[in-house]
Amino acid sequence: MNQSPSTQYPKPNTLHPLTKTIIFFTFFLLPFSFLFADTIIDSVYSDPLLDGEICFSQNLQGYIINNWMYDMFVGDSGINIIDPDPNSYIRSFISFYLPQFPQNYYIDSVFVRLYQYDSCGYDASTGTYTDFPVWNVAGGDTIKCIMSHIDYGDELDIGDWEKGDVGNPYTYQNNIGTITESGIDGYRYLDVTASVIQDYELNRDKTQYRIAFQIDTDWDYESDLVAFYTSNGYPPHDELKPTLYLTFSDEINSIGNEEIQIEQTLNIEIYPNPSIISQGRQTAISYEISQNTNVLLQIFNIKGQLVETIVNKKINAGKYTAFWNVSNHSSGIYFYRIKSGTQTATGKCLLLK
Ligand SMILES: [Ca+2]
Ligand SMILES: [Ca+2]
Ligand SMILES: [Ca+2]
Fold it and tell me: What is the pTM of this model?
């Protein structure tokens, strides 16, 4: 089986340029010594042979496998797409070959990125079309498109339809997260760190997912769909292809929340968090202090060099939001450190341009 297109380990400043600026901030706080850890970032496209979808056809009362396509549909077809095959419903599958694990490194974070280029939905209660699926069924207010962590092997076959369902032995974990709940076209991200760690531990060469709605069809004879691009060559833009972003660190304390030991006394929130896209060129760091004090908020690069001081002043107790304009900064790992009196908290972000 072919190896995925990119398995080398570019340093952050050589990461493939992307058209948008995206920032991930980790939820957890890290010891400041982590600033001096060595970090590897790898980006891997999904495997074109394993991108695809399975449609359950109402007319045939059987399954149709579609791969080698340039899109992945999730939802139901209604009568608009496959006439006269009403309400056939579709689940999509995606697969990434995992790069060789770099020696003496540990997984820091892994994100899946998909590009959602279309969606449509019909609201039977109002008789109107929207740009996102509408499920007029009991519980239909839940229109999240979810991903499950599965093993569907080296090819997509009809036996994979239920991989992702509770109780299927090839389902590692159903509903690992929401990949989209919006009709807005654009990138979608999901933190799959735990899933990829599990795949490495099982000596799997792939990390695989099923994408589905929690409701297969609403039987309103209208299409309710969301569509993502695959790796199959159209459109020919790498930045639109499904991509897995992996970061490895040589510091063991970068793995997972439970191994992080730090006295967390400041209340800090970061926007966007890892599952939200930063559409603009600045990001917000919110913090709350309980007493009047000096606050120092600074950004550092991977070498531990000061990049920018965001806040340095005495402020009253309360909740504040500081903004970091990233338009002049290159791709890579950055760290923020906030000091309030004797208290210090440190976090990490991944900037992709
Ligand atoms: Ca509908
Ligand atoms: Ca299979
Ligand atoms: Ca429908």
Answer: 0.68
